[in-house]
Amino acid sequence: MKRSQGGFSFLIVLAFAMLAAVVVFVVLKVVPVYTEYGAIKRTIDEIVVDQEQTDHEVRRSFENNDIVQDFNSVKKEDLLVTSSGGKLGVGVRYDTDVPIMKDIKLVFHFEYQAGSIPVLQDQKQ
């Protein structure tokens, strides 16, 4: 009786290894973008806790956190700050490009707002 061997050929294993390498490469490029977005969200949430801040104080607080956390995508000038009747709203809208290869990049669009006043509804960038 002839018994056939089961399993994968070397080319199939090599193809799976290449696919896994590409997936790991892309994940390692994308994770820092979402980590930075999470840090920006936490910073804005911390700033909005004090509803009595002025525009200048909000931007200075964000800049102080930026110095520590080193945000690459957002600076204090990018914040959208509104204040009315003792209520504060802070938002941010930005795009981040992640280069993959020479002519290939991923573009991520992020929006976040916190506070009592809607900030990002009618404003276009």
Topology, element by element:
Blueprint: H1 10-48, H2 55-69, E1 80-84, E2 87-101, E3 104-115
Secondary-structure element series? HHEEE
Low-confidence stretches: none
Assembly state of the chains shown: single chain
Largest sheet: 3 strands, antiparallel
Helix content: 40-55%
Distance between the termini: 73 Å
| Backbone structural class | alpha+beta
Average pLDDT for all residues? 85
Radius of gyration: 23 Å
Can you count the beta strands? 3
Brief write-up:
The protein has 125 residues and is an alpha+beta fold. The protein is 43% helix and 26% strand. Strands 1-2-3 form a 3-stranded antiparallel β-sheet, covered by helices on one side.
Describe the structure.
- It comes from Vogesella facilis.
- InterPro entries: DUF4845.
- Keywords: Membrane, Transmembrane, Transmembrane helix.
- The chain crosses the membrane at residues 7-28.
- The longest helix has 39 residues, at 10-48.
- The relative contact order is 0.15.
- Strands 1-2-3 form a 3-stranded antiparallel β-sheet, with helices on one face.
- It is elongated and about 85 Å long.
- The protein has helices spanning 10-48, 55-69, and strands at 80-84, 87-101, 104-115.
- By secondary structure, it is of the alpha+beta class.
- The protein has 2 helices and 3 strands; from the N terminus they run H-H-E-E-E.
- A hairpin with a 2-residue loop joins strand 1 (80-84) and strand 2.
- The model has no long low-confidence stretch (mean pLDDT 85).
